[in-house]
Amino acid sequence: MANKQRVVVGLSGGVDSAVSAHLLKEQGYEVIGIFMKNWEDDDNSEYCSSNIDFVDAASVADVLGIEIEHVNFAAEYKDRVFAEFLREYSAGRTPNPDILCNAEIKFKAFLDHAMRLGAEKIATGHYARVRLNEATGKHELLKGLDPLKDQSYFLHRLNQAQLSKALFPVGELPKTEVRRIAAEIGLPNAKKKDSTGICFIGERPFRDFLNRYIAKEPGPIKDPGGRTIGQHVGLSFYTLGQRQGLGIGGIREKGAQKGGNEHEPWFVARKDVEKNILWVVQGHDHPWLLAPSLRAEDVSWVAGEAPATTQIAAKTRYRQSDAPCSLAVDDTGFTLRFAEPQWAVTPGQSAVLYDGEVCLGGGVIHTEAANAP
Description:
- α1 packs parallel to α2.
- The protein folds into three domains: about 200 residues, Rossmann fold (3-Layer(aba) Sandwich), CATH 3.40.50.620; about 70 residues, SH3 type barrels (Roll); about 80 residues, Elongation Factor Tu (Ef-tu), domain 3 (Beta Barrel).
- By secondary structure, it is of the alpha/beta class.
- The radius of gyration is 22 Å and the shape is globular.
């Protein structure tokens, strides 16, 4: 094909981006791979696998017969993503760095670099889809067809300019088919385990990692009756709904309490930053863990404007089912009211909105469960 369109693919070393590159080459594009190195503070540790990942990405490029470039975005990542990540944790919230990483690194720094290489488009191994709505002229972000792998939640901050340049080749496929293709064409990473760690930081003991950057400020752990039942190591190290690592497993409430009984586990229900108190409750369905509504700010709309519809669905965390709700938008954010109360709605996480398979955008959760102290 003369004058092939050039597409730059973010090769992570994983199977999804590898198969994406293969599919694009099969479709007749001129494909160039880029490996993004975005973290280098402890590059030689057992948890930071960027060197191994690059070897895997280079091996994939060799099998596919495409060029690969190693690009360092560590400074941009630290400035645009990691600094915000630490600010949010220091304020007692629980951020989602993968969302910011997509908006600021993969679809900004990486996109800019790809355009300088003469690319028409960029591609990643995300399980999502892009569709041009002929009626509105706007690009829509759609869920990936594999419901177990859909990653539109992490991409909801992408704007029209970014989506117009984005391709998600595996978004049309189930993961089982991606693995099958990888094995069929002899990719060396066909059976490589999926990454589940923080974007570019990897899989590591999280509390130990965070302790390197945020000072510990111990304080009391209290139950709904106001009784001190333990000591926390610092509010930054806990998230709402957390059950493990509280250090109070052997302590039981005397007599049943509302929403729990003496045999039920403890969950983090609220973090009082001003008083440095960690509030915990017994029982997964304790009222303090259930939120009938939420407030979100720092909003991003995929279409560039809020949707006209008010009856939508939302996810307040990745991998949860879409929850029907009503949407009320104002100048600084939006409020959601749910048909059924949502569990452990967590400040700092994102509320992502959907109209069927279309991702509308979302915002950062500002308020937690209304029933908490």
